[in-house]
Target: HIT domain-containing protein
Amino acid sequence: MPHAYDDQNIFAKILRGEIPNDTVIETEHTLAFRDIGPQAPVHVLVIPKGPYVSYDHFAAEASEAEIVDFARVSARVIAEAGIGLGEGGQGYRVISNAGSHGTQEVPHYHLHVVGGRALGRMLAAPQ
Ligand code: 5GP
Model:
């Protein structure tokens, strides 16, 4: 089944300039901005400007230029936040939720870059 992109999602509105955001980095293909409800001292969302729903959609269908730009911007976010291991930082976590099992709230592909404190184990134990 093809990926159906809903252009009324909140990140599409941010990309169209209809809703403000706290931009960290913007390039031709990628926008990085602070999460409105940060879960840690560093919590930045990295999104492609193209209409991709999820990690698998982006990785399968985006152009090489989009994918490289996304990866480089993510690395710059980590470096500039001082959490990257190459900067002597103490590390971070990148997360991308997809669909109902992934509890994805906004159906536009995004990478959460989270750090600035010890983050605990990756997944909670099943209830
Ligand atoms: P998801 O659950 O889809 O992986 O995460 C969506 C994230 O988007 C959440 O962490 C939430 O706080 C963030 N978010 C939702 N609406 C807005 C918004 O209008 N602006 C910003 N900057 N972040 C938002």
Q: What stands out?
A: DSSP finds three helices and five strands in the chain. Residues 64-81 form the longest helix (18 residues). Residues 10, 19, 21, 33-37, 97, 103-106 surround guanosine-5'-monophosphate (CB under 6 Å). Strands lie at 23-26, 30-34, 42-48, 92-95, 111-115.
